[in-house]
Amino acid sequence: QVQLVESGGGLVQAGGSLRLSCAASGRTFSSYAMGWFRQAPGKEREFVAAIRWSDGNTYYADSVKGRFRISRDNAKNTVYLQMNSLKPEDTAVYYCAARTYSGSYYRHFEYSYWGQGTQVTVSS
Fold first, then answer.
1. Per-residue model confidence as pLDDT tens digits over 4-18
2. Is residue 110 classed exposed, middle or buried when 0-12, 13-18 and 19+ CB atoms within 10 A define those classes?
3. What is the DSSP string of 24-40?
4. Of 85, 105, 113, nearest to 22 (Cα)?
5. Does the structure show a pLDDT above 80 at 100?
6. Measured at the alpha carbon of residue 105, what is the angle toward residues 44 and 27, in degrees to the nearest 5?
7. Spatial distance between the Cα atoms of 69 and 85, rounded to a whole number of angstroms
8. Any residues with CB less than 8 A from the CB of 58 and at least 6 apart, and which?
9. Chain centroid to CA 5
10. Measured between alpha carbons, how far is 58 from 5 in angstroms, rounded to an integer?
11. Sign of the dihedral through C-alpha 107, 109, 113, 119
12. Edge-to-edge order in the sheet of strand 2-7
């Protein structure tokens, strides 16, 4: 089992920044990559970004490219999501997830472990 705990959400004005953190514990050696997803009320969960533990390769949704940056600290088993130039449409609950194999990083059902989520609200 891998346990994931997110932190760093909150309320921010449009154009502002937030940094989310996701700390992993447990059988972290089984984790191949980490992802961030978000879900707004009444909408499906959508992919935001992903990063591979081994080489740091990153993947982004088109809607966040150039504004968000995912990074990892292998020593701390922690993944970060730096969010800049936030927009009201970024408002959602953000979830951290871990996957144990490659495949498509964009598919939420390929992730085995999930955090509890952290609320991000961007006011206009």
1. 999 999 999 999 999
2. middle
3. EEESGGG--EEEEEEE-
4. 113
5. yes
6. 105
7. 12
8. 49, 50, 51, 52, 69, 70
9. 11
10. 21
11. positive
12. 2-7, 18-26, 78-83, 68-73
Which two tokens mark 58? 């990153």
What residue type is 25 in one-letter code? S
Tokens of 32: 């191949």
Per-residue pLDDT of 32-80, as tens digits, reads 999 999 999 999 999 999 999 999 999 999 999 999 999 999 999 999 9
- Would you call 89 helix, strand, or coil by DSSP? helix
Beta bridge partners of 81: 20, 70
pLDDT of residue 46: 97
Token pair belonging to 51: 């990063």
Query: What are the structure tokens assigned to 89, written together?
Result: 């449409």
- CA-CA distances (angstroms) from residue 1 to 12, 26, 60, 85? 34, 6, 26, 35
